[in-house]
Amino acid sequence: VQLVESGGGLVQPGGSLKLSCVTSGFTFTKFWISWLRRPPGKAALEWVASSPPDGKSTSYTDSVKGRFTVSRDNATNTVYLQMNSLTSDDTARYYCAWGAFQAALGAPRGQGTQVSVSS
User: Fold this and answer.
1) From CA 43, how far away is CA 103, in angstroms rounded?
2) Smallest Cα–Cα separation from 102: which of 45, 29, 41?
3) Out of 30, 83, 108, 109, which could bridge 95 as a Cys pair, Cβ 3.0 to 4.6 Å?
4) CA nearest 51: which of 24, 26, 90, 77?
5) What number of other Cβ atoms are within 10 A of residue 17's Cβ?
6) Are 102 and 45 in contact (CB under 8 A)?
7) Are 67 and 84 in contact (CB under 8 A)?
8) pLDDT (tens digit per residue) in 76-113
9) The dihedral sign for the CA sequence 33, 85, 6, 42
10) What is residue 1's predicted lDDT score, i.e. its pLDDT?
């Protein structure tokens, strides 16, 4: 099982970034995939968003609803996280992981990609 995130970087408040997660080693079309994040100085991961296998009924934590969109391309085994209207509170290392909602917190995940929101 492999999950590889990319797309992070430094962005100004109000800006946008699109993260990608390329996966391999499992049947992508059968699994929920989630995005998690770990803010600086915090040990615990936070659940951010989840996508079901068909990509249709996505879910988000309250703090990102209306700003973040999770999508997936089942042809390329890739999941995306479009992040708009970023604030400093979104600064974190972002990970993609197997599973849905809180269950993803303990599941296999990638190495992460850093997102920093600062002026």
Assistant:
1) 17
2) 45
3) 109
4) 77
5) 20
6) no
7) yes
8) 999 999 999 999 999 999 999 999 999 999 999 999 99
9) negative
10) 87
